[in-house]
Task: structure prediction
Amino acid sequence: PVEAAVPAPPEPKPAVKVPGGRLKHEAERDAKLMAEKFFTPHELATVTVLSDIIVPADGKSGSASQAGVPAFIEFMMKDQPRWQTPMRGGLRWLDNKCVARYGKPFAQCT
Result:
């Protein structure tokens, strides 16, 4: 039959929510970046500790990690790939210094 020769239409892509102020292609790119992972679990733990040292919780407001800063840094590393090597190298340097001085990586020293 003729119907068998006609391919089925492609599956529709899931709709991408376009937040205010963003164009559709920007929202699609953001969604793609959000689905990817850059940091290893260990690196993300280190970034979380560092961000909370810089912006700790107090009686009026939450910490950097409670505000989503580590997730934002993760996003920025994917959005701005030129910073990936310096970021990863800096985290590695910090761990190496802590292991040399204290016998354990930075996130375990705090």
